Amino acid sequence: MATILAFHAHPDDESVSTGVTLAKYADEGHRVVVVTATDGSAGEIHNYENPEELFPKLAEMRKEELEKSLDALGVKEYEWLGYKDSGMMGTEENNDPDCFWRQDYFGPVGKLVTEIRKYKPDVLITYDPFGGYGHPDHIQTHRVGTAALAHRSQFKDDWWGFNIPVEFQKDFLGYENYILAFNRGSWSSETELV
Ligand SMILES: [Zn+2]
Predict the structure, then answer these.
(1) Helix (H) or strand (E) holding 70
(2) Of 34, 42, 108, 111, whose CA–CA distance to 66 is shortest?
(3) Residue 22's closest CA among 70, 93, 88?
(4) Residues 145/124, Cβ–Cβ less than 8 Å
């Protein structure tokens, strides 16, 4: 059984982009861990009639939604890195010193390395360099995810490598924006996912 760590930017990304994948492997008995970087507090509210009233407590609502989503997916372990949502590229939220986009690079990398060392994943799921569609938190998730993996290799006897199995991404994730990284630099019977 493998340990899969999915590093995501916002509460909802785990379901929108990798929900079926995470549910499948959790159901098969693999250990599935979700790490979420931000609180989702700059998200858009479309499904309520009073968005102005709800906006101040959006982070709290999204945490509750994430917990319900993970429960539905069968994911029992998750971690928060605790940063504020940076909002869409070019918006005022980008300048908030507490947002993920504005963090000193080594802060979030250190936090994610701590999680990688704690869970020792066989597979890390993170984003492509453009973050799918250019959202600053998605771009930062790619930077932090790939850098943390590289730093992690300094503490491990074997080595980490990157694979980008395009067919797997298309066929099973239905999405081309994710990079899957496997330890030992290649597929193995322990980390085979297809
Ligand atoms: Zn997102």
Answers:
(1) helix 58-73
(2) 34
(3) 70
(4) yes
Give the least confident one: 4-8, 28-32, 49-53, 69-73: 49-53
β-strand pairing of 160-163 with 123-127: unpaired
Distance 187 CA to ligand 1 centre (A): 28
CATH superfamily of 3-193: LmbE-like (3.40.50.10320)
Whole-number Å distance, alpha carbon 137 to ligand 1 midpoint, is 7
- Ligand 1 centroid, distance to 114 Cα (angstroms): 22
Cβ atoms of 128 and 142 within 8 Å: the answer is: yes
Burial 164-180 (b: 16+ CB within 10 A, else e): ebeebbeeebeeebbbb
Could you report the per-residue pLDDT of 150-172, keeping only the tens digit for each?
765 544 444 343 444 445 545 55
Task: Return d(Cα 166, Cα 105) in angstroms, integer.
Answer: 29
